[in-house]
Specification:
211 residues, six-stranded mixed beta sheet, five-stranded mixed beta sheet, 7 helices, 26% helix, globular
């Protein structure tokens, strides 16, 4: 069975997700932006074995602790899409700009593309390429639990910013309306910040989406 736990990290209250398969106790962290001690404590408390780091995109609050965790624990870095290479290259400058601890550089072990799959234990998630907030942003969808991890594409009552380098409002709206919402109103999602919601709630009430 698939399990998930939301762990807000950094001053940006970014929703890092710990996901795991209870048959194997193998786990992955989605968007380990910081607060390494808090993340590893959550893994240890549940008796899990951390196997991978998955990234939706490479903004500092989502990727800041990735390089250190990958190096110290010998973990593969899976994602995002190659479109975010320039954000990975800029992590040291992002650290300084936003007052974060100095982020270690890293190279993803595997880039992700639309239609790919990632797995942990016996659980599999689909990958959707959803640019707009960043060019290389991806989303992870677990069909069995009808849940998606959408990073900063969509929020409860909001959408991702598109005023950063590489942002594109039209691409973001297209990703939401053509890739995410058609998956079904019943799908719950963990956004990069703030409370969870469902695609149905956002389709009906999100003021930033076209009617």
């Amino acid at each position: 069975m698939f399990h998930r736990l939301t762990l807000p990290v950094t001053a940006f209250e970014q929703n890092c997700s710990l996901v795991w398969c209870d048959e194997t106790n193998e786990a992955a962290l989605i968007d380990p932006g910081g607060d390494i001690g808090k993340l590893l404590q959550a893994v240890e408390e549940r008796g899990l074995t951390l196997k991978a780091l998955w990234l939706t995109h490479a903004h500092i609050d989502h990727a800041g602790a990735t390089g250190t965790l990958a190096r110290t624990l010998q973990l593969p870095i899976v994602g995002p899409h190659e479109g975010d290479q320039f954000w990975i290259d800029a992590l040291p400058q992002q650290s300084q700009m936003f007052g974060f601890p100095q982020a270690e550089g890293f190279a993803p072990t595997r880039w992700l593309h639309d239609g790919d799959e990632v797995g942990i234990g016996r659980e599999t998630l689909k990958v959707l390429h959803c640019p707009g907030h960043t060019p290389g942003h991806v989303v992870f969808v677990h069909d069995g639990s009808r849940h998606a991890f959408v990073g900063d594409v969509l929020f409860n009552g909001g959408i991702g910013r598109t005023d950063f380098p590489g942002g594109n409002h039209a691409e973001l709206i297209h990703a939401i309306t053509q890739h995410l919402l058609p998956l079904g109103d019943d799908i719950t999602f963990t956004p990069g910040h703030g409370p969870e919601s469902t695609f149905g709630e956002e389709r009906r009430f999100n003021p930033f989406l076209p009617r």
